[in-house]
Every structure is written in C-alpha cells, then in structure tokens.
Amino acid sequence: MDREHTNGTARPDPRRRLPRTDAVLADPRLTAAAERLGRRLVKDAVTRAQGWARRNEIAPNDVVDAAVRSLPATAATPRRVINATGVLLHTNLGRAALSRAARQAVIAASGNTDIEFDLATGRRAPRGRSTVATLLSHVPAAQAAHVVNNGAAALALAATALAQDREIIVSRGELVEIGDGFRLPDLLVSTGARLREVGTTNRTTLADYAAAVGDRTGFILKIHPSNFRITGFTEDVGLPELATVGPLVVADIGSGLLHREPLLPDEPDADTWLRAGAALVTASGDKLLGGPQCGLLLGRADVVRPLAHHPLARALRVDKLTLAALEATLNNPDTPTRSALHTATRALRERAERLAASLVADGIPVRVVDSLAVVGGGGAPGVTLASVALSLPETFAARLRQGPTPVVGRVVEGRCLLDLRAVAPESDAGIAAAVRAAAARNASEPDRACT
Ligand SMILES: *Cc1c(COP(=O)(O)O)cnc(C)c1O
Fold it and tell me: Residues 299, 367: one domain?
C-alpha cells in the first residue's frame, strides 16, 4: 500500500495525506511497543489505524495515536482480563485468579527445580512430595493424597483404577454435565467402567444403593451437584449411610473446599466427607480452593497409593508450575477467591462510589447500583452474594472487552454492569482507565466501536 503514495498520480487522492507505514512505525512509542510486543502486532495495529483513516473514521494525523491506543498491554495470550461479571469462578475467564504468593511461586519454579530430586542424597525423589505433604497437613482425615491435571482427570483415574470392567453405582440425580457439553457419565464410561444407575432424578434411597451391590461392584460414587439444585420432593442418601452399604465410597465434591466454609454451609469439604466415611474424595484446585487448575485425590492410603502408581497416572501427571502454585495457595489461603467471597458489601460500595465520582467528573454517564454476584460453575448453586456494580450505557460493554486491558462485565436490561465483587481492589485503577478509554473511543471512533 505504501507504494501507492510514492508513485505520484495526478488525481487528488485523500490517501496521499496518510503517513507512510515506515514513518509511522518509526514513532518512538511504536518502536518501544515493537520491542515489548513483537513487530507483527504493532504493524497490524498500524495497518488497522490506516484503514480507519482511509475510511475517514479518524484524522490522518491520529494514525499513530489510534494505533498506540489499540495495542494490547502485553503480547501474552491468553490475555489478562478484569473479571467484572459478578461470577467469582468464571470457567471462560480461567476460574480462580492466583494469589500473589502463588504467582511468585510459579515464576520461581519456571526454571529447573528439585521437583523429583532429593538434594540431600542426590537421588530421585517422589514428584511433588512437599505439595502432597502440605495438602495432607490441611486435611487431617486424609492418609494420602495425589494431584492430577484437573477434577475430571481425578475422577477418570479413580474410575479406571477402581472400576474398569466393573460397576460404578451412582444416583440418577447426580449424573451431571460439567459444562461445554462434557458429561460425567460419559467420562466414567469412557474409562471402561459400567454405570449402575440407581433411584430417580429427585429421589434415591439407601435401599436403592444396597439392592445394586454385587460381585461386579467397583465402588459407590457420590457426586456433589455443583452447578444446579433439585428442590421440592427430593431425597438423597448422605455419606455416613452410604458408607454402611459395603463397597468403597468415592465422593466427587467438585468445589475443592478442604474445610467447612461458614458462608457456604451446603458446600461439601474434603475433610468432613472423609470423616463421614468416603474412602476417596476428588476435587478441583481452581474452584473455591482458589488455586491453579488441578485435580485432588485425597483419602485412605490403601486406595490413593495404587492410583498414584497406575499407568494412567503418568498421562495425567501435573506440571511443576501447578505444584508450585498449589503449594503456595495452601500455605497462603488468603486467595483472591476467598477475598471475593468475604469482602463486605459496604467496602464494595465505597470503591464503586469513589470510582463513579472520578468518572462522573470526566463527564462519563455512570451510576452505582446494587447487584447480585454468584460463585459460578465452581460451586454453591443457588447462592447469591450481595454486590455493587457500576452501571454504564450498554455500548460500553463491547468497547471495554476490546480495550488494551479488557474488562468483562455483564449486560442487563440495556445497561453494562461492572460488578466489583470478583474484582481485586488493586484493579480499580485499571477499571477507571478502561472506562475512560472506552468513553474516548466512544466519541472518536463511533462506527467501528459499535460493531
Ligand atoms: C467442576 C467439577 C468437575 C470437573 O472438574 P474440572 O477441574 O473442571 O475438571 C467434576 N465434578 C464436579 C462435581 C465439579 O463441580
């Protein structure tokens, strides 16, 4: 396209006023950005901005500014986003945000580490031994623990090792879909286990379980319905009773709570369920535990140890970065997830009012409104948490998602709501900057921004 500018045509052409690409790229802000982000991203931004100028959406003089504004803050993908959805554990946004301690642990572990090496003897040592020891110190009722890639992997390993060519007895009320079309019954069957479904969607009794037990039984599975609730005429069997039936009881608690959480009284935790008679508990690391994506297996030593040595365990082996982040999370349980759950609504309102006052002073049409947050796919279905949001015109939603640091809110009845419950206070400045940038683009680039 640059050649067109240099081959001197006679006709007046608005494009001739466009600065040349190489001249634009020589701007110090863009050369600095190219060092940080790589040349290709910057060149793409310039081409994009030239397109806007060519279509008269911006003035030719604004090409550099527009290109700079449209650059992402970092080249890293997946991109960092601010979760203002009011969903504390949003699977599409990477579930739990790691604590500062866990982030530092990840960086520290990213070189070579003693992950499977004993520095005292100079010999091989069990992988992740210190993370497992820390995990056990938090769950006194567990004799042994093993960590795999996610909650689904934990369940797949249990089904493969304990019930291949055998039966898993499970209530029809607990055969859940965990999202994106993945269903736990399909996962279990894919391991070579057979499902022995008992009871009905709303009612399953101890007698239903007892009648299904036979020589083909691998284990009884109790799945916590973490993303829905059945209400009305219901009955299910608690763990203490299930443990009296005979076969091993495996419990998938989903949320990853290790101890009781008083704010979420209906959410199961590993320690309580093991005490109540489960031989094995499986859970996710990146839900209410607030750690990295991983799957926890906790329970009796004679059940967990063979799982850890099963051939499939090697395929589900967890990364050293994950082990480092998990251990740091366990040692510093004040995670962003925990703060999001526990922050007083009054504190959210103060932050919202401060933000709104500074934005209104710049002429941005923002209001502070009451909102309701939820825990999310990670647990506590049906529980709502009082919250506070900034309310902006709906057109802000797309602009905020496409800004240099994307902010993801939710659109409700024609308004873009930025719910502060899942936003860390240190991100408030980022929200203010993003809203200002979105308002500026609102004024200068209306056509593109509305698409
Ligand atoms: C989330 C969840 C899973 C899946 O765990 P992932 O870590 O997403 O693989 C399985 N079972 C239950 C009950 C869950 O809530």
Answer: no
